[in-house]
Amino acid sequence: MTLTLVLLGAAALIGIGLYGALSQQSFVMLMMGLELMLNGALLAIIGFWSLSLGGMPEGQLLAIIVMAVMAVEMAIGFALIVAVYRKRQADMTESIGTLRQ
Amino acid sequence: MTDLMIALLVAFAVWTGWRVFRVDSMVRASFALMLSFVAVGAIGVLLSAPYIGVATVFMMAVEMMVMAIFMVMFMMNPAGLNPMVMVHQHRLSIGAGLVAFFGLSAAVLLSPLPSNPVAPGTDVVAQLGHELLGPSMLIFETAGVTLLATMVGAVILSSRQGRFGSADEGSRPPGLTEGGDPAGRQPEGGGGHGHHHHGGH
Fold it and tell me: Which of A69, B129, B131, B147 is a good FRET partner for B89, with 20 to 30 A between their CA atoms?
């Protein structure tokens, strides 16, 4: 019962994150959507680990890997946003029509 | 009791996640996302994963503060005084989000979920430590090297150009045919100087 609830919450977070990543025009808001999807994945991992894996330590390891992915995504994402802004003064997806040079 | 708290925290995480795309200021959006992460961390603590839960809260508190600074740098509506709607392909996005939610929910509700909870009194943090520095050490070390590569990549990507000018100064993409013109728009004035004034605003 608790597991179902947690997994439904994770599904909702992933759905909202997907909506945000597809619909937002600003790069930073788009990354919030990606983070929200990873948040849902983390919630699902915690739920599965705690309630159906019997405390297998590899489950916690997977959660730590997801956190590392979050850090990588955010650092590289913001670096790319800064690089694109320096190059083209663009902070919206619509401003980038072509992948030049 | 624990179930009720978990239910409330799940609802709070989803609600704050939804607020991320509904508030009028990007700083508020990043704080809403932080609240969502904090709720997930608290669920982790309640579900007998104290290390993961607390680490999530600490990491996300710092990460969302950094994110808020970037928001101040890039947003067009700092105070949230005007309505902020900056969306494209809105219907497709709503559809994709709903499909993802209902598809995953159907998978959750229709599949028999195994029930094997963590035994009370299990020393989960010590188990995690032995796993990280034992059988899964290679994975853990790989994550560390990946983070190092991330730091290097982030510095390279976001640093200003070096003392010899832009890396693509005077560069020319290869032609479509031998010696022909490259595809796409041509850089104006020859060389690689032409792309500083394509303003997005």
Answer: A69
